[in-house]
């Protein structure tokens, strides 16, 4: 239900700039020394700083449009990265990595528990001895999940090269049985209300279940932070920044 978001790489980059994510994962890659594997690498925003630092990196994504944008980004920067079209649940690259990461809630596009476990097991098979699996997902807020269905709320504003100032709103509902939050995002520009809409569905992973999922796939949660500065994770943290290793 989220493919539409990833068919327009330029819009994706406007909606989700790399910011602190790029700095954090580039530092993790520098410490690991390479090779580095990014799952759901998208347009290569996070891979490029790693490649520019001289660390060998590999990116996997299911979207050919996103991979095409990533290849062009790397080419324009005269850098080098290996890009693979593949499924993060079943990839087999025939090598191991001291660092594997998946950033910016991309893990949450796997809605079924079996799919999450398949991804974690594929990661486990590709981790080098002592290697780290690092990812960030949002920390579900019961207050936000309880918003009444059909209530629109503001998400962000972006400056679009074709439409000018674009406001983004969303509405949706949370399915407690599946732990999936399904939304529709609405894009409006001056004189063009709701000129584009896109569905977005993400799984919620609650703090107490996350270590259990990892253990079931042969991984262990070594550390969990609440921010990119390494602050402690607590109930009010916006994100779960996790560092895992083979169990």
Mind explaining what this structure looks like?
Helices cover 26% and strands 36% of the residues. With 247 residues, it is of the alpha/beta class. A 7-stranded mixed beta sheet has the order 3-2-1-4-5-11-10, sandwiched between helices. A 4-stranded antiparallel beta sheet has the order 6-7-8-9.
Mean pLDDT over the full residue set: 95
Order of helices and strands: HHEHEHEEHEHEEEEHEE
Compute the CA-based radius of gyration. 18 Å
Structural class: alpha/beta
Helix content: 25-40%
Outline the biggest β-sheet. Answer: 7 strands, mixed
What's the total helix number?
7
The strand line-up of the biggest sheet is 3-2-1-4-5-11-10
Shape: globular
Low-confidence stretches: none
Strand content: 35-45%
End-to-end gap: 33 Å
Number of E-state strands: 11
What's the layout of helices and strands?
Elements: H1 9-15, H2 19-32, E1 36-39, H3 47-52, E2 57-61, H4 64-76, E3 82-85, E4 97-102, H5 113-126, E5 127-138, H6 142-145, E6 153-160, E7 164-175, E8 180-189, E9 192-203, H7 210-216, E10 219-225, E11 239-246
Parallel strand pairs: 1-2, 1-4, 2-3, 4-5
Antiparallel strand pairs: 5-11, 6-7, 7-8, 8-9, 10-11
Summarize the structure.
The protein is an alpha/beta fold and 247 residues long.
Labels describing this entry:
four-stranded antiparallel beta sheet, 247 residues, alpha/beta, seven-stranded mixed beta sheet, 11 strands
